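=== RUN LOG ===
request id: a7f3
mode: sequence -> structure
chains: 1
length: 201
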Amino acid sequence: MYSLTEDHRELFPPFGRRNSPRNAPTLPTILFNVSDSSSPSLQPIDVSLTPQERFEEYLQTRGLRQTSQRKTLVDQVFSHHDHFDADELIDRLPRKGAKNYVSSATVYRTLREFVDAGLLKSFQLEGRTVYEHDYGYPQHDHLYCTRCRELFEFQSEPLTKLLDEIGVEHGFRISGHRMIIHGVCRECSKSRRKKRKQDLV
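=== RESULT ===
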C-alpha cells in the first residue's frame, strides 16, 4: 500500500512563492500540514500504486511510452501538494541546456495527460488553469481569499449531504462537484480592521 502521507508531504519550496520571469500573478500554496490549527486541512488517502506507476498504467492503455521528461514531471508535481499553473511548473524545472530539461510544449501536453489519467484535477481561477492533486486525495472544495489570493481546502459533510439531497430531489446521480467560495480570510480581515483603527487615530 502506497501512502502519499509518507512520501510526498515534505515542505519543498512551493509554487507561487517565486519571482516569475513572466511577471504573472502567482497563486499561493496551501499545504496539508499547516501550523495554524484553525486552518482547514485534509488527510491523503492510501492508494495501491505510486503516481509514477499509476501514470505508467495510463500510458500503456493509450499505447504511449514512458519518457524521462514524463518521469521528471511526475516527480516534480508529486514532490509536494499545492495548487499551481503551467507557468509556475515550468519556472521550477531546469532551464534549456540543463539536465532533465523539459520543453514548455511537453509540460502543457503532459499536464493534460495527468488530468486524463486521474492524477490531477484542473479548474479555472482568475482566467488561469490551476492544477491540484486528484490521485490519493479526497473530494474537497475551496475557499479563495480575494485579498491575499490564498486558496484554502476544506471538506464539509453537511455540504455533501445537501448536494446528495439536491440530487435525489431532481433525480440526478451526483458523481462529483467543484465549489470555490470567494471572500476574505481571517488574517486579511484582521489586517483590515487594524488598518481602520490606525486611520481613526
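=== NOTES ===
Residues 139-201 form a domain with the Dna Ligase; domain 1 fold (CATH 3.30.1490.190).
The first strand starts at residue 2 and ends at 3.
=== END ===
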